[in-house]
Amino acid sequence: MSTDTALALGLLALLGRGVPGQVRIFLLTVFVVDDVIALIVIALVYSDDIRMTPIVVAVAAFAVMLAVRAAGVRRGSVYVPVAIVMWGALLVSGVDPVVAGLAIGLTAFAYSPGRAELEQVSGLFRSFREQPTPKLARTASIGLANTLSPNDRLQRIYHPWSSYVIVPLFGLANAGISIDRPFLAQAFASPVTWGVLLGYVVGKPLAVIGTSAGLTWVSGGRIRPAVGWAGVLGSGTIAGVSFTVSLLIASLAFTGDQLAEAKVGVLSAAIVSSALTWTAFRVTNMLPRDKRSRALFGDMTELIDLIPDVDEKQDHVRGPADASVTLVQYGDFQCPYCGKAEPAVRQLLGHADLRFVWRHLPLPDVHPQARLAAEAAEAAAAQGKFWQMHDLLLDHQDRLNITDLIKYAGDLGLDQERFHDDLTSHAHAGRIESDIDSADNSGVSGTPTFFINGRRHYGAYDITTLTHAVRMARARARLSREAPAIRERPGSVDSTARR
């Protein structure tokens, strides 16, 4: 039954960068379906003496919760009574109330904070800075928390309790068995232990690989895993790591010695599945580079996060137009984090197969001189010196008033009078707005934000992390170029489907 998501991901983390992010995403997708099915099994198989009236009450409570969410209510105190009614109704109905947790969790949607909401919060903090009263402090604190999605806020509140209190207590209460040589001999002679062990070690990989292969075949290759088959295999083997939900189901299904034997099967499966996963990725990483990339990434075309795509005529571009990797940065010339990222970007520009694109996202609510600096860069671009001005502005982030900007124009040999007129008339404001609109359409609310080949980069932007991300993007780009030829080979899935 259900994989232990946190434990499996933790074990994968021990394998380091040999496991790409795409494999982890695929794995999480498998785990979500896995959890849903496990809880459905609990509801249908391990529920006795079902009573319909309480179930109707539970469904009605869930409908009320959905209606409250649709109305935009964000106060947790409104949801708690409805959730308690739903849980209590399922408890009385004979259906295991753990199902209520799944249903309630599905109502907590996730999204990134919007730029408008962040600007509003900046205004609240400015008000507090000008008048530091308890009332304004509370208003600013609530406003900051409200920019986060319900999913993020609930994780922030409950994660310490669930991870450091509830789950350890559950493990101590349910996993405790006395292990000695006679008991192990008895357990490994039991069909219960071997049923659990083989179910995880053999059944899980077969289910993940078989379902993925079946969907690929039935759809003629139109629906297939977003990773390579080595990634699918590794996801299947690590899915054999289980703990919490599997122990819950074991406690519902068995008692006495059989329950202890089932627990031995669960713990043994975690050890064997971890070893199989290490072996699968170890062997994969020993393959030649091209074969390794295909085994891990497959040949799926990735979804694009960047809107609009890079336009050589519109965007400011450094590097060859035919580069296999395009790194786009939304930046703010006064943002200290953009300044910290700049050395890494300049080091990356030494790569011959990379082009770099800068798009403006000034944040005037926190960086009052950022908008003027962006217009100065565009005024320099009008005279053919965008990148020279770009570098100067990031090197002098603490000196961006109009006098400094005109001095920089002179240092670059620009027509200072024309440059001054462009700044005072805001001649290039429309160009800045165009970049801001593209940031909004791409879901960007802060700086620096990077996109690599159209996909948003999440995480650190130091040289090591960015170099690794660029290397992975280059490998995927190479696979994308090779994929059409492979799909046209006789006997391939796509060519067979077309015939």
From TrEMBL:
Residues 480-499 are annotated as: Disordered. The lineage of its organism: Bacteria, Bacillati, Actinomycetota, Actinomycetes, Micromonosporales. This is Sodium/proton antiporter, NhaA family. GO terms for cellular component: plasma membrane. Keywords: Antiport, Cell membrane, Ion transport, Membrane, Sodium, Sodium transport, Transmembrane, Transmembrane helix, Transport. GO terms for biological process: regulation of pH. The chain crosses the membrane at residues 28-46, 53-72, 78-111, 161-177, 197-218, 230-254, 266-284. In the N-terminal section; belongs to the NhaA Na(+)/H(+) (TC 2.A.33) antiporter family. SUPFAM superfamilies: Thioredoxin-like (SSF52833). Its main location: membrane. One of its GO terms (molecular function) is sodium:proton antiporter activity.
